[in-house]
Amino acid sequence: MKEKRRQEEHLENLWYMKEKNQDSIDSLKDIMKSEFSMDIVDELSAEGVVELKNGGSTISLTAKGKENAQKLIRSHRLAERMVYDILGGEFETGACEFEHIITPELVDSICTLLGHPRECPHGMPIPEGKCCEVSARTADSSVIPLTELKVRQTARIAYINCMTDQRLHRMDGLHIRPGTMIKLHQTYPTFVIECEGTHIALDTSVASNICVWKTP
Predict the structure, then answer these.
(1) Does 187 share its domain with 201?
(2) pTM passes above 0.70
(3) For residues 193 and 208, what is the distance between their CA atoms, to the nearest angstrom?
(4) Of 93, 100, 134, which is closest to residue 116 (Cα–Cα)?
(5) pLDDT above 70: residue 89
(6) How many domains does the chain have?
(7) N or C: which end of the chain has fewer CB within 10 A?
């Protein structure tokens, strides 16, 4: 089990590198520090999960490796989304354990519960699962962007897509956080919402990243 966990940690970090268009073995060493193991890399290579090129100086995920890493990243980022949106706690620590123990079926259930979110609280993309594909084909999500609300309509915030922790904390300081009820008062020239008794003006780019539970 410990060996499998170490392999998964290498795969996760290789996915992060792929998102940054990095493929140097030295980059992986720098990211993982003391957790890096060349023996683990050799094991992954023997299993056809990673590919070493240029005399071992570059490393990349194979198709099989991408599939395995994507499942881990999907679980991790959905865990962050769930902890932040529903439990309101520190989402990074728990998420690091979550992806190593949860089943794919439970991951899809959590994704469905959250309305198939596209991004984690850091604004990084959450890989889609089969449940997302089914939802897109059969029915509208119960979670919609704030920009799709009608004036005078109320809704409860489901989650917020933010590219930076600074913006996330700023939104939280305005009481714009998951679980809060809001009412849309205006859409032009800016969006104006009522939240916790306060009227707040938001530009379209910010409003589109606030996702709410759709009311009947």
Answers:
(1) yes
(2) no
(3) 13
(4) 134
(5) no
(6) 3
(7) C
- How far apart, in Å, are the Cα atoms of 201 and each of 60, 125, 150, 180, 187? 45, 27, 16, 16, 9
Domain edge (last residue) among 138, 157, 175: 138
Identify whether residues 113 and 163 lie together within a single domain: no
In single-letter form, the type of residue at position 76 comes to H
How far apart CA 174 and CA 171 sit, in angstroms, is 5
Residue 43, token pair as written in the block: 């094991």
Helices (H), 47-145: 63-82, 91-98, 104-113, 130-138
Nearest to 155 by CA among 167, 142, 168: 142
- Assess whether 113 and 148 both reside in one domain: no
Inter-residue contact 50 to 37 (CB < 8 Å): no
In tens, the pLDDT along 17-29 reads 999 999 999 999 9
Is the pLDDT score of 62 beyond 80? yes
pLDDT band at 161 (very low <50, low <70, confident <90, very high): confident
Q: Are 99 and 79 in contact (CB under 8 A)?
A: yes
Full domain range(s) for residue 185? 143-213
